[in-house]
Amino acid sequence: MPEWNNYNIEIYTLKGGVTSRIYRVKCKDGDVAIRVYSDKAEIFLDRNSEASAIKQMADIGVSSKLIKYIPEKHAIITEFIPNSSTLTNSDFLKDNLIKIINDPVKRIHSYKGKVNNIFNPYKQCLKLYNILKKLNSFLPELDKINKAITKLKLLIDKINISENKYVITHNDLTADNFILVNEKHKDKFKKPIYIIDWEYTGMGPKYYDIADMFQEILVPREIELKFIEDYCEGKNFEETVYYCDMFKPFPDIYWFIWSLIQETTSKIEFDFYNYGYRKYNNAVKNFELLKKEYNRPV
């Protein structure tokens, strides 16, 4: 940011960022978040699509503004959202927040724009699996993954949603990627909530995005149904519930494989291994759910 050379600059390290380091940088001319990412993550991330998605989502009030994308520096700079806080999983249990949280998700999925990356959940899991095998072909978990991939192939064939029907999806809707503006400052912002961290964005099935959110926040079934009811706005409720359930095993297997890749390549201090096994165990539960609810013995 050479335009800031003559200013007194404040720099703060922010928490979060498993594939990158995040900083808040302030001066009298601006307030930005700088994400400096590891080149190791580029084996499965599309930074051009990330930058494109941020720009488009900022235009519709879903994301903060893209300030600069500097691929040669492994950096993305966005406008920082002050006077706000990240959500926690317990926030998704609050009835008064369901519409607020769902609003940007609905606007993402109804937006007609595009990014270059195609996020086919089955193909993405298979892609990570092949990357993992190249990195460490002796992992004992490979047999579990191979069996899970076979089950995911059966599911994706049954789901049968054409890629030409894909929309922009975030694909990492964790609670802490939702930024809620503090009540007393809402009049200073166009929207009460924003979504950050577009690393995994792509053109994907909207139902996967919702399923991924459910698998991250892990709320009771009745809360899931409330979110889907609000999301559907009176249309295609049963169909949406069905497809969200069918996609639930995909994000857990994706993040399980992802965690094993990170365990091999990342220098960031994080318990990737146990995080991944929690995801795998969630996937097993969801395979059982499909067998019980829909008679899908996968």
Structure notes:
This protein is of the alpha+beta class and 298 residues long. Helix content is 46%, strand content 16%. A hairpin with a 4-residue loop joins strand 4 and strand 5. Helix 3 runs parallel beside helix 8. The model has no long low-confidence stretch (mean pLDDT 93).
Helix-strand layout with pairing:
Layout lengths: L9 E5 L5 E8 L2 E8 L9 H13 L6 E5 L4 E5 L4 E3 L8 H16 L10 H15 L6 H18 L7 E3 L8 E4 L11 E3 L6 E3 L1 H12 L3 H12 L4 H11 L1 H17 L6 H23 L4
Antiparallel strand pairs: 1-2, 2-3, 3-5, 4-5, 6-8, 7-10, 8-9
* Shape verdict: globular
Q: Report the C-alpha radius of gyration, rounded.
A: 19 Å
The first-to-last residue Cα distance is 52 Å
What percent strand? 15-25%
What is the helix fraction of residues, given as a range? Answer: 40-55%
Q: Taking strands numbered 1, 2, ... along the chain, how are they ordered across the largest sheet? A: 1-2-3-5-4
How many β strands by DSSP?
A: 10
Mean pLDDT: 93
What order do the SSEs take from the amino end to the carboxyl end, as H and E? EEEHEEEHHHEEEEHHHHH
Task: Outline the biggest β-sheet.
Answer: 5 strands, antiparallel
Class derived from helix and strand content? alpha+beta
Low-confidence stretches: none
Number of helices: 9
Key descriptive features of the protein:
298 residues, alpha+beta, 9 helices, three-stranded antiparallel β-sheet, five-stranded antiparallel β-sheet, single chain
Short description:
The protein is α+β, with helices and mostly antiparallel strands and 298 residues long. Helix content is 46%, strand content 16%.
